[in-house]
Sequence to fold (1060 residues):
Amino acid sequence: MKYEPVIGLEIHVQLGTRTKMFCGCELTFGEPPNTRTCPVCLGLPGALPVVNARAIHFGLMTGMAMGSELAPRSVFHRKNYFYPDLPKGYQISQYDEPLCLGGRLGDVRIHRVHLEEDAAKLVHVGASGRIHSSSSSVVDFNRGGTPLAEIVTEPDLRSGEQAREWLTLLRTTLRQLGVSDVNMEEGSLRCDANISVRPEGTTELGTKTELKNMNSFRFLERGIRAEVARQIELLESGGEVVQETLHYDPRSERITSMRSKEEAHDYRYFPEPDLVPVRIEQAMLDEARGAMPELPADRAARLEREHGLSEASAKQLAFRAELGDFFEAALGSDGDVPAQPLAHWVTGELVARIGDSDPGDSRVEPVALAALVGMVERKEVNQGGARQALDCLVADGGEPRAIVEAQGLGAIGGEDELSGVIDAALAANADAAAKIQGGNEKPMGAILGYVMRETKGRADGGEVTRLVREKLGV
Amino acid sequence: MTATDAVAFTAAQAVDALARGDLSAGELFAAYRERAAGEELNAFTWVAEEAPAVQDGPLKGVPVAVKDLFCTRGVPSQSGSRILEGYRPPYTATVVENLERAGTTLLGKTNQDEFAMGSSNENSAFGPVLNPWDRGRVPGGSSGGSAAAVAAGLTPWAIATDTGGSIRQPAALCGIVGMKPTYGAVSRYGMIAFASSLDQAGPLTRDVTDAALLLGHMVSRDPRDSTSIGLPEAIRLPDARRLDGIRLGVPEELSGEAEGIEPGVMEAFEATLRVAQELGASLETMRLPHAEHGLSAYYVLAPAEASSNLARYDGVRYGLRSDGSDLVSLYTQTRHDGFGPEVKRRIMLGTYALSSGYYDAYYGRAQKVRTKIAQDFHEAFERFDFVVTPTAPTVAFGLGTKVHDPLAMYLNDYCTVPMSLAGTPAISIPNGLSEGLPTGFQIAGPAFSENAILDAAHALEGAIGFDGSRAFSRGGMPSTPPERGAPGPLGL
Amino acid sequence: MIDREQVLHVARLARLELTDEEVARMAGELSDVLGHIERIDQLDLEGVAPTTHVVDVPNALRADEPAPSLPREVVLERAPAVEADGFSVPSPQA
Fold:
């Protein structure tokens, strides 16, 4: 039987406000422990929370970016449980009246977006002098109370790879919005996955597990792949998937159960009596709307519409905004360069050379790439020569025409230049020439190879083929 | 002026005497400090050594006693609990700051039921408070220390909190004035929480004028408390002498012996109703159909909120920590050792009411009953200016007589809980004696009607002519020259 | 109405250690109180909205402006156990 994975994501994003969700302490960027705390975020007796207006603003922008329904009235609840990183014994979160409901980002439907406060940081310090306990942990409340947006998707994803790709889109979207720096390695973007499998062609959902602790895009993909494989193997060997929380260890690539002997969680949610419901007023909506930048999905659509790009190219450029920016800068610098080939050069050759880094930080000027692509289009340089020129641009910067001329990379394209070489090639490969004349084009490669050798790769392959046919009267 | 003369002034009178120069702030503080430090009612948990530097303000130089649960920077703020024994907060409650800004001096912190849970002050980790009218009896609770201290003249006045009657009931049992303002009138920031949606601070004073004066300086809209709104108009000093045209509603559900109200208490209540009529008020029996369910709703909602509010006492950041071999036993042992029996009971009750499978039956229903009770009051106040009831169903009861019977203890709040649930203001004023002990007359009005309530209370107070000085003059001080360690005489 | 097992379950949720005697007493007392509370079952509350806040309060939002934090020595001076500039606890996994 073939199985289909069904995956939903729960993403926690630290919002980039100046201060915490419910108090005026500034957010921490690696300050010494317990230096960004106050009675509120320490849970001192008598202290009360007050909602940060900008967290609501960022929440609304996030909801707008996904086309969510923005609740006119939104309520905070207490989620009660004991843990040393939770100073009040409850987390202020949202329950049945979240800020945003529904929506869609890319191919994935959004279930909800709500706001809550982050837990503090618990650091294991190993053995301590205490008699009874072999090891201790230390709580640093600097992070405690940082605003979080929790984004929950519908189970619309079907593979680890797709999950990774979609999370990239989410990251770009949030970064564009300016609501978070969305850095997975630093913990400002955290992702859990709900994973189940079902026989292909069926619609009923299988038992799901919740996979936690995937702290990079790579681990997200690998972790999901590993869990899907585990579930399929389990089912195929006649076993059953148990609903549980799992931990993915990226080093060993092992998945372990986080179930403890303690009783199942009973969070005893109830409306937070220290806060009043947030009423979303028209002015707040107007402000959020006014702050919205162009989002990746909109940008992709615009790139398709305005420049005739393929859907794939448009998405590649829009979902990595820095590529889109480079592309648009290059396009703007040179009115004649055709868009689709330029897009290919940005997402293909350039990315192959600079990887995940921002092309804006590279030595390649947008205008230089546009010029190079223009030369390719005018057959002044062939693909191979252009690739060599791009190597030079990436390494040292500069102007492509100068590089092509200095290194003799220019295309030999004209009949005058090629005619003699082709004649020699045909003479040297008489058999091949005869076959081509007889209608079998396969040996064309041998002719081309000869010409390329002779011209050090500068000949235009298309032009060579055309001239060969012409000379042989095919 | 002698110290005895100085403490005979009400706070408002002391303000005048200080302004005239008949009295100095130092003299006044010293006179009260001596009484508070030497008292035998166990009303104080901490007394200031000396008067702190006073800010210039309309109440400049008047001492104030503050219920233990208000956070006062550097001063013990323990909410009557062992789990916070010796806890000195790094910040001060907004309402205490407001009073400091008005010029008052912090005289001391007063005893209370642990986390304000109780109606007798017997649940304090620091021992019970004795009623100055009869030291064999309770002062009421949870603000028993504040009420006893005011009644015994150990302080000119005190601030306290009321969640289901914790200001009004001890005021009644100690023969003084106590007011719970509209929910939201006074900031809760820095008040160690019991039940957040019900807790509200208010004054305990010798008379209605002082209640108005103190409340006026407590009220504020505090940006640190999202539920605080202040009051739409400033509190005025009341001057009414008559009740002409005032319509009083007497709810069947909250008056009458059938509802467990003692005959003596009913007699005193009815006597005051006649006084009200003589002052020009009209009187009508009416109904608050859901009021009798107030206690049920209250004993779901308040414990539920409390169970969550008290989760922060875990032995990690402050307060008591009992040794545990692992994290869970550190939590459970700390909380076992730190909380008293009533607090444990309410934590259990509240946790149960919120737990999976029971939320709708208990918490959800109780919230709906709360809606109905609030509606009852809303409708009542379309026909009546005030709803009046006895404040507490009984006079002060003997120490130890109810402490092992939670239900009997909870019934003390029967007449005060409905207003707490409705969030509406109410005052208790002394209402004459029954069996030689004070009773209270409760006047409840619509939200934000504090000035009208204070006026009506002022008019009644003048006509009732209650003399509280009996407890005051004999109250907290040893009746004979003080002998160290000698127990105070019972039942003076 | 509430038995020993339920008392123990609730005590675990509330992180309260109870002695055997306390468990027994708690079961009786809570049952009494719950018996009283359950009188509200008689009421018809169909369609009644629950009340969380009795007073209608307008939005109470805070501008995203920093306020001073407490000095660390003040933060830690009340802590029962301090280690490495933080609050020390037995490791949750231990």
Q: What stands out?
A: Residues 360-383 of chain B form the longest helix (24 residues). Chain B touches chain C through 69 residues (CB under 8 Å). Confidence is low (pLDDT under 50) at residues 478-492 of chain B.
